[in-house]
Design a protein that fits this description.
By secondary structure, the protein is α/β, with parallel strands linked by helices. It has a single domain, classed as Vaccinia Virus protein VP39 (Rossmann fold, 3-Layer(aba) Sandwich), CATH 3.40.50. It is 42% helix and 22% strand. It is built from eight helices and eight strands; from the N terminus they run ααβαβαββαβααβαββ. Strands 1, 2, 3, 4, 5, 6, 7 and 8 form an eight-stranded mixed sheet that branches. α2 packs across α3. The chain is globular and about 50 Å long. The protein starts with 24 loop residues before the first helix and ends with a strand. The relative contact order is 0.16. The model has no long low-confidence stretch (mean pLDDT 90). This is Carboxy-S-adenosyl-L-methionine synthase. Its EC number is 2.1.3.-. It holds the Pfam family Methyltransf_25.
């Protein structure tokens, strides 16, 4: 269990009718524990987002964390960015997440200011950006909205700016797909989740999270016009990519 979080027991008891997964108050209360026990390599990704932001953030530019949840990526970037006039804009549409995000970020003092915005990331203007982060966010948008958002991000990025995109991946090869899904479930079992929890969480999330393959992500990046892109981290069927304008 994450020592800084309430334990995730949301799916520990049988649920008669499993509804779609939502980022509500219950999830916000246990989110740090849930995410650490559910996403292999999550801590590595968060740490490296700060390293990438330190490298790419420019003076007098904006850094966006779109779908910031409790602000882990924002905090990682805030700790590493040291550029005059640079600000971070953290956006999430969950009021429960936003309230806790404010508490987490207010506990850490930094010269880099953060604006925390409760809004739909599809409605946010992207302007003068040197870094944009979508950390396990894009997969919750409808497939038709993904290209539109990425195109808007590209338009708002400075030349040489970076998009960091973390996602769950799907795989065309059935054997590879089955193996990686099984390894992910083994990871969750090793972190204390029961078979019931794994099954019920999967049922709740399958209608709201529809991941893409790495190839689809790369095809989008190429079509939009990014000059360089690839996978920089992967653990089982989860990973993170960069795309540079």
């Amino acid at each position: 269990m994450n020592p800084n979080s309430n334990p995730d027991t949301i799916f520990s008891a049988p649920i008669d009718k499993i509804g779609d997964f939502t980022f509500d108050e219950r999830v916000a209360e246990v989110f740090p524990d849930m995410i650490q026990r559910s996403i292999p390599g999550y801590s590595n990704i968060i740490s490296a987002i700060g390293m990438l932001a330190e490298r790419f953030a420019k003076p007098h530019s904006n850094v966006y964390d779109l779908g910031c949840s409790l602000g882990a990526a924002t905090l990682s970037m805030r700790r590493r960015i040291d550029q005059e006039g640079c600000q971070i804009i953290a956006v999430d549409n969950s009021s429960a997440m936003i309230e806790r995000c404010k508490l987490h970020l207010n506990a850490y003092r930094s010269t880099t200011p953060v604006s925390i915005v409760e809004a739909d990331i599809r409605d946010i203007s992207i302007e003068n950006a040197s870094v944009v982060v979508l950390n396990f966010t894009l997969q919750f948008l409808s497939p038709e909205d993904r290209y539109t958002l990425l195109e808007k991000i590209y338009g708002g990025l400075r030349p040489g700016g970076i998009l960091i995109l973390s996602e769950k991946f799907v795989f065309d090869d059935p054997s590879a797909s089955e193996l990686l899904i099984d390894l992910h479930h083994d990871f969750k079992r090793a972190n204390g989740y029961s078979e019931l929890e794994i099954s019920q969480k999967r049922s709740a999330i399958e209608n709201v999270m529809r991941p893409d393959s790495k190839q689809i992500h790369k095809e989008r990046f190429a079509k939009i016009g990014f000059s360089s892109f690839d996978v920089w981290f992967q653990c089982f069927n989860f990973g993170s990519m960069f795309a540079i304008k």
